[in-house]
Amino acid sequence: MDVRSENSSVQVVRWAKLPGQVIQRTRLQVWFIRICSSILIWTCLVQLVAVGELWHPKLFTRFLNGFETFPTPPPAPPPLPPPRNYISNGFLKVSCNGGLNQMRAAICDMVTVARLLNLTLVVPELDKTSFWADPSDFEDIFDVGHFIESLRDEVRIVKRLPKRFSRKYGFQPLEMPPVSWSSEKYYLEQILPLFSKHKVIHFNRTDTRLANNGLPQDLQKLRCRVNFQALKFTPSIEALGNKLVQILQEQGPFMALHLRYEMDMLAFSGCTHGCTIEEAEELKRLRYAFPWWREKEIVSEERRSQGLCPLTPEEATLILQALGFEQNTQIYIASGEIYGSEKRLEMLRATFPRIVKKETLLDREELRQFQNHSSQMAALDFMVSVASNIYVPSYDGNMAKLVEGHRRYFGFKKTVRLNRRRLVELIDLHQNGTISWNEFSNAVKSSHEERMGQPNHRVMIAEKPKEEDYFYANPEECFCEMTNSSLELKKP
């Protein structure tokens, strides 16, 4: 075979492979150019945005929002205040008594007492022996971490006593109930010296143990700080309460009607107006069954004429009509189980068909975790009542007073404070035919013109603290800076 022809063949093969190699190289060059171009373009875009933010931040923010793929992180919580350094004079342990709102006010008072006496407060124990027999602990209702940390610049709070003060090691704290309606002088002069000997004092009753009036401004404002800021409900209660409010608001404005026509209230107060003979006997037996309900023999009609009974659902219906509320008013019933069940609500439902309760607005599963926990259920009603457009309590118990105080604090929202003594008189006059409906309605309206939650001064009655206005219903010291400007406080 001729060598030249062989070499020529090899050369032909080599030349035959060349077009493929050229194509492959060309593709690589194209991809390389694309990658470099992309990098260059994105670099320019980033630089352009950075410069643009200096010129027109809002314009570029709106532009980039269209390309946002990750959620914006929530704003960081405000920094915690620095802890207050002080030498503790001892430990204060407290057991709150009563329902949710009575205990809430007591917690505010006990934090204030601990701050006044430079004590270390143990997270309060909640009442488990009352009529409701709620087994909830503090952390089941309130956000205990927030409670402790948000007040650390005022008072040191611990979840439990140190082991050396445990009963297990034979330590016995001094147990006592402080005197009701006491001023700061009582605690400074009579309680503080006891800590030098006992180190731990257990207040086994905490209701109304601090005066309404005459306290220094800083103590009054601390009571408000605890009430309005430190005592947050647990996340699960807050979430469900907010859901209830949202559901109601989506249907338009709503009224929260707090019907305190519940078995415990009727038994305790001796109010049996509208009850059958059998029901009256049942309530009386219940009153005798609880030894700490001291008053046993009560004349119901006499109590009612003094305005000391909650309005019945039927009476509440007449009053709402007389005040001018329309038939399509959305009404949320804030209460536990009404005594007499749904039968007692027939007149109210017939007059105001848009009546709802938490049990009708939420799925059964959503409420399951709160069942048999009356304080947690009351917390849901509390949240809805504070958020309502209008709040009408049928009785001025602890919840009515604390809700009123919250509504005043958050802008004097409309709260109808019913004058029950005048109302039952008018109801009886109307029902026996003495006055017409128009006369009845006009009298109800005129007697409540100054009872709609407007700003006014808290009534102070020297030497009669039980008869004066309750601090938590009208904590005016906590918004007194507004009184000289847009708000005018009226004297009662």
UniProtKB/TrEMBL annotation:
Glycoprotein found in the keyword field: yes
Membrane topology: Single-pass type II membrane protein
Pathway it works in: Glycan metabolism
GO biological process terms on file: fucose metabolic process
Domain EF-hand positions: 421-450
GO MF annotation terms: calcium ion binding; glycosyltransferase activity
Signal peptide region: none
Cell location: Membrane
Pfam families, alphabetized: O-FucT (PF10250)
A cellular-component GO term for this protein: membrane
Keywords: Carbohydrate metabolism, Fucose metabolism, Glycoprotein, Glycosyltransferase, Membrane, Signal-anchor, Transferase, Transmembrane, Transmembrane helix
Sequence similarity: Belongs to the glycosyltransferase GT106 family.
The name this protein goes by in its record: O-fucosyltransferase family protein
Species annotation: Lactuca sativa (Garden lettuce)
